[in-house]
Design brief:
It is built from 24 helices and 23 strands. By secondary structure, it is an alpha/beta fold. The structure holds 1,4-dihydronicotinamide adenine dinucleotide.
Length: about 750
């Protein structure tokens, strides 16, 4: 049966546009007589015009509905109700909707900014509702809507005046619900989200267009119908979604002991318990709340300090529907990911690589001879497969996406990632843990290229409020984060993210609007869209790769991080590193705030000599080359005298040794960075001078049989780069003539 309003008189305040207009049209379409109130002001409350209300009245009448206009301010509540009485003889429903904005950061909020907002929203709703109240009481029917806002419920930057008035309306509604109940006057509160002139300055245009007021008005219409018995409810509504909110209270802790003063120290010592939402309760009226407090008085007398307060039957435990066994048995179809160099490059840019650093070119230019995929790209195919929308459809897992936090990530590579191809990821739930207030889900993804296992990902996801299902707390399958050693870091790299870092990173496939859409972020607890945790993860990983592995992806073995705090695009990341053998412990801070963003992190590297056989294979290291001995000796000398040589030489030299006209080995002597180093095989760092020479000619040079200049002019020795540096190199080579 349709919900009709024949014979009912409805006042909608601020109905000349936005949400109010839609409510007015909806009520009129269902037979109500509507007073369309609007002062016709601008969004800040300035100006005045009758045009807005008139237009909506005309619209309603054109469709055969009944409506009159009223142009008074809601502050003159009596006049609005009088219009209803004069025109239609009664008032049944009041929708308090009129509103303005005067957003300012708190210290800049003037008296007028504060007063106007409170006058229009809170006092206006009071004036209008009070004028209607006795009429409703007499007729034993009334339905009232208050319009609050997420800004009031959760707080929002620059809206102290508005938030306080909006949450004031909830307090007003709560009391009216109590007072009105016995007279069949119901008062409910909505916190809507819709595109309107109020939101067009904070939302992108297509969001304004898509979040239609008609996705809010059906809730208002239902709450105002005589069939609806809801009273004192608070609802978030928008985009076609409606949810009810309520208060949640921890079990708390009694911190006072009989005949002893209550101390702040006792509060401190019980803090965790005071704030622990395990087995929380949901008091729904003041009697329940007060009754509990009064009960505490006698419990203190009974000596129950620190006692566990009894859980209410509505605890989280009775509500969670997690079933680890069912979830872990569920077979998910594999996720397929096809990509080419474009995705690799886009990802590298997304995690902050730039052509400013010549070392980065091998990850940014598909024509580079060593073009490679960043190792942490390995999370992308698995992320798409594991964290996609399918989680909610796994049997045994009961989650609300808005409550899901990506807690930790582990990635292990078994071979360097190809720069193009099709990867298939097999996904499964490894464990579901019960952490009391929340649940922890551990998913894994095994990613294959053909039959070959390329990488393994483990995602740890925290679901707020989903605990208490009686599961185990820990898992032996979890890859645990590790604290860094207790000493100052061995190396620190600081690098800024850009303002558009998240906008760029999301193009690699994480489309969560939390990272781009200010209004979506504001609906969460974030002032602005935040950077993807996996983007900071990519930054940290490449800092390690550059610092400890010369950007050689074949050295990368595994990485583990815990996402501790969000990073905002534009902030700088400070990656602190501790080398412990082949494990590099990592902590990543936001430089501006000192907050730890990635904690318990580490990167495992393959030892330099064990670089992936695949890479070594590209440049045959041809056993039996005489030059091998010379380079081995150079390596030893660098170990002994590295710092001194770096001071003297200050250059990076690469040697391409040929045998029978073919490239047979490559060596790079770095006498520029740190205390010098020798590298065998492909080198991705910046080289100042590259020599190409045959094994035999090389030996002739080092043994003094062939003068380097002569070798150069005769074409036996080719040199590319900063030739002047070759003079310095002679210092080392000459020593080897003694070999
Ligand atoms: P809107 O600006 O389109 O509509 C508000 C209307 O109220 C305007 O037509 C304005 O002329 C009228 N008005 C302002 N002061 C008045 C007064 N003193 N007397 C009579 N009318 C007056 O804005 P929108 O978005 O439709 O907002 C409607 C309500 O919903 C407001 O209370 C707003 O705070 C609330 N809200 C809206 C959200 C959204 O996403 N659009 C989010 C949260 C709350």
């Amino acid at each position: 049966m349709s919900l009709l309003f024949e014979g009912r008189v409805v006042l909608v305040t601020g109905a000349g546009g936005g949400l109010g207009r839609d409510y007015a049209l909806a009520f009129a379409a269902r037979g109500a007589s509507v007073v369309v109130n609007d002062l016709g002001v601008d969004t800040a409350g300035g100006g005045r015009s009758s045009a807005a209300a008139d237009k909506v009245v005309q619209e309603i009448r054109a469709k055969g509905g009944k409506a009159v206009a009223n142009y008074d301010s809601v502050e003159d509540g009596e006049k609005l109700i009088q219009t209803a009485l004069d025109s239609f003889g009664r008032i049944d429903i009041v929708v308090n909707n009129a509103g303005i904005l005067r957003d300012r950061s708190f210290p800049r909020t003037s008296d007028l900014d504060w007063d106007l907002i409170h006058r229009i929203h809170l006092r206006g709703s009071f004036m209008v509702t009070r004028a209607a109240w006795n009429h409703m009481r007499k007729q034993k029917f009334g339905r009232i809507i208050m319009t609050a806002s997420a800004a009031g419920i959760y707080g929002n930057f620059g809206q102290a005046n508005y938030s306080s008035a909006k949450l004031g309306l909830l307090g007003l509604a709560n009391s009216l619900a109590v007072e009105g109940q016995k007279h069949n006057i119901h008062c409910n509160t909505i916190a809507p989200v819709a595109g309107s002139r109020l939101t067009e300055t904070v939302m992108p245009p297509d969001l304004v267009a898509s979040l239609k007021p008609e996705y809010v008005s059906p809730l208002v219409v239902w709450l105002c119908h005589e069939q609806c018995q809801e009273n004192g409810g608070l609802f978030e509504v928008g985009a076609g979604w409606i949810a009810k909110l309520r208060w949640e209270r921890t079990q708390g802790s009694i911190v006072r002991q009989k005949n002893k003063p209550m101390t702040p120290e006792a509060v401190r010592d019980q803090w965790d318990k005071i704030c622990d939402f395990t087995n929380s309760v949901k008091p729904s009226n003041v009697q329940e709340s007060m009754g509990f407090v009064i009960n505490v008085l006698s419990r203190v007398e009974d000596g129950e300090a620190g006692a566990n307060l009894t859980a209410a039957p509505t605890s989280a435990a009775s509500e969670s529907k997690m079933n680890p066994t069912v979830a872990m048995e569920h077979k998910m179809p594999p996720g397929v990911f096809t990509y080419d160099h474009v995705q690799c490059i886009l990802y590298a840019l997304g995690v902050g690589m730039s052509t400013k650093d010549p070392d980065h070119l091998r990850f940014l230019y598909e024509g580079h001879p060593d073009f490679s995929c960043l190792p942490t790209f390995g999370v992308i195919p698995a992320h798409l497969a594991v964290m996609g929308g399918e989680l909610i459809s796994i049997p045994g897992i009961d989650l609300d996406y808005t409550q899901v936090l990506h807690g930790e990530q582990y990635l292990e590579l078994y071979k360097p990632l190809p720069t193009s191809g099709t990867l298939t990821t097999e996904r499964s739930v490894v464990d579901v843990l019960d952490k009391g207030s929340g649940a922890v889900l551990i998913f894994e993804g095994k990613t294959y290229s053909g039959d070959e296992l390329v990488c393994y990902n483990q995602f740890t996801v925290f679901v707020v409020g989903a605990g208490g299902f009686g599961g185990k707390r820990n898992s032996d399958k979890a890859k645990a984060p590790l604290p860094p050693p207790k000493r100052a870091p061995d190396a620190v790299v600081i690098e800024s993210t850009t303002r558009d870092q998240a906008a760029l990173y999301r193009l690699s496939g994480d489309w969560n609007p939390l990272h781009i859409d200010p209004s979506f972020a504001a609906m969460g607890t974030f002032k602005v869209p935040i950077l993807h945790g996996l983007c900071s993860f990519g930054f940290a990983a490449r800092h390690v790769l550059k610092h400890y592995a010369n950007n050689d992806p074949s050295r990368f073995k595994a990485i583990k991080v815990r996402f501790a705090k969000p990073v905002l695009p534009g902030q700088s990341l400070q990656t602190e590193m501790w080398k412990e053998g082949n494990r590099i412990h990592v902590q990543c801070k936001v430089k501006e705030t000192g907050d730890v963003a990635l904690s318990g992190a580490y990167v495992d590297l393959h030892p330099a000599s064990e670089a992936s056989p695949e890479v070594l294979h590209k440049v045959p290291q041809g056993g039996g080359l005489q030059s091998e001995l010379v380079f081995a000796e150079i390596g030893r000398r660098i170990k002994d005298l590295g710092s001194e040589l770096v001071k003297k030489v200050n250059g990076v030299f690469s040697w391409e040794i040929t045998k029978d006209g073919e490239k047979a080995a490559q060596w790079t002597i770095d006498l520029k960075n740190g205390s010098g180093s020798l590298h065998k095989g492909p080198y991705s760092g910046k080289v100042d001078l590259t020599f190409t020479v045959s094994d035999e000619d090389f030996m002739d040079v080092v043994t003094g049989k062939l003068m380097p200049q002569k070798a150069f002019f005769s074409g036996k020795l080719k040199a590319k780069g900063n030739i002047m540096l070759s003079q310095k190199l002679e210092v080392i080579l000459k020593d080897h003539a003694k070999l």
